[in-house]
Amino acid sequence: MKQTRMEIVSNREIPIVLIYDVEGIKDPITDEVIGGEENEKSTTGVVTEISSQGTIDRFLTNGILVEKGDIWFSVVIEELVDIYETITGAIYDGKHYEIQSKDKKGIGERNRAEFVGRLIS
Fold first, then answer.
1. SS3 51
2. Cα(117)–Cα(66) distance, rounded to whole angstroms?
């Protein structure tokens, strides 16, 4: 299954930048995180622009209201092992997106992560 998926998506992947949080250190007295920052990781993924799906302007997926201008994309899970839990956004085609939902997917074994991104205007 994993090999078949790699063949299917090989010519459909396009560049995307993932934005993730890097946790700072915790203050020993207040437990507040100090010095956290955002980092970027360039990768590739299969991206679907919601507006390209005909006349659909909004629909529900995984309990998230998806609207025209949003994106759905998947990335190979090996690219995300160390940052999956802290991914907060993405940059695609020069536009910034906030991550609305993320799920690990695969049959038999996890091979990708799927995301829904909301366009930040």
1. helix
2. 9
Per-residue confidence band for 39, with pLDDT thresholds at 50, 70 and 90: very high
Distances (CA, A) of 102 to 27, 30, 62, 80, 114: 30, 31, 9, 12, 6
What are the b/e assignments for 59-70, b being 16+ CB within 10 Å? eeeeeeebeeeb
Q: Is 37 helix (H, G, I), strand (E, B) or coil?
A: strand
Q: What's the sign of the alpha-carbon dihedral 53, 78, 83, 62?
A: positive
Phi, psi of 68 (to 5 degrees): -55, 135
pTM above 0.85, yes or no: no
